[in-house]
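Protein modeling request. Please complete all fields; requests missing the sequence field cannot be processed.
Requester role: graduate student
Desired output: 3D structure, C-alpha cell encoding
Chains: 1
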Amino acid sequence: MVKRYLIPLVSFLLGSVFIAAFYFGILTWAQGWEYATSQFARDRAYVIPIILGFGIQAALYSILRFRLFIPVTSTAHTGALMGTSGGTSATAMVACCIHHVTDVLPILGLSAAASFLTRYQRPFMLVGLAMNLIGIGVMLFVLYRERQKLQPVPLETK
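Delivered output (158 residues):
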C-alpha cells in the first residue's frame, strides 16, 4: 500500500531534481554559477512550472508504468505513452534551455542562430511549458479512461 504513493512521490522528486540539475548545469557551464542563479531569478515564472511539470509527468508515468492505480491485467497504452511522455519531456527541456546555446554559437560562427534564439527565448519556454501540459493531459486522460473501465455500469430496470 505504501508503494502506491511512495513510487510516484520519489518519481516526482527525482524528475524535478533531474530537470533542475540539467537547467542549472547548462547555465553554470555556459556562464558560471552567479549567472545561473540570476537567470533563474529572472525566468523563475517559466522555469519553476517547467520543472514541476516534468516532475508531475514522471510521477504520472510511474503510476502508469507500475500499474499502481489500474488493474494488473490492463496494460492500457503504456508503451505508446512512454514514447509520448519521453518525447514531450525532451521537447520541453530543449525548448526551455535551447536559448542558452547562444553563448557558444558565435564561437562556432553561427551568430544569426544565436540572435534568433536569444530573441525568442520566452516563446521557447512557453512552448516547453505547453508541451509539459500536453504530456500531463495525455497521461491524466489515459488514467481516467482506465479508471472508468473499473466502474460498474448501472443497469436500468423498468
